[in-house]
Amino acid sequence: MMKPTNWPRFSTLSPESSAIATAQAFIDAFNSQDHEQLARTLNYPHTRLALGHFRTFDSAQESVAASTAAEPRLADEDWHHSVIAEIESVHVGADKVHLAMTVERCHENGMVYNTFDTLWIATFDQNHWGIKFRSSFLR
């Protein structure tokens, strides 16, 4: 997988590879709690369906505010990092890829304390691969 520092070059990859690299860049930014980099891995408006509710972020600023606000909840979980345990491209088009993933949340010692399935849609919009939609079974 590519690291976030290589992220702007993803458009030179195949759609499937670009989508997977974008998902990994999201996880890398999430793990480092780099909210601005995390926001750059998304396409806007960005929608998330979790815990039975849709939430749409119209801008990177909204995404940064939301991910910053989530830090205390992650600390309460004793979260240290997340891992994409499994990833599969379910549908692949020239400008859209559906990714079925299993994500694990881990404590600092590496112990997995939460595993959940999630469906992400990556899109190529304005010469940028980004995650447009996320639907997670996070509990």
Structure description:
The protein has 139 residues and is α+β, with helices and mostly antiparallel strands. The chain has a single domain (4-136), classed as Nuclear Transport Factor 2, Chain: A (Roll), CATH 3.10.450. 29% of the residues lie in helices and 42% in strands. It has 4 helices and 6 strands; from the N terminus they run H-H-E-E-H-H-E-E-E-E. The protein has a 6-stranded mixed sheet with strand order 2-1-6-5-4-3. A hairpin with a 2-residue loop joins strand 1 and strand 2 (53-57). This is SnoaL-like domain-containing protein.
Q: Helix and strand layout, with pairings?
A:
Elements: H1 15-32, H2 35-40, E1 42-50, E2 53-57, H3 60-69, H4 71-76, E3 81-92, E4 96-106, E5 112-124, E6 129-136
Parallel strand pairs: 1-6
Antiparallel strand pairs: 1-2, 3-4, 4-5, 5-6
Organism: marine metagenome
Protein name: SnoaL-like domain-containing protein
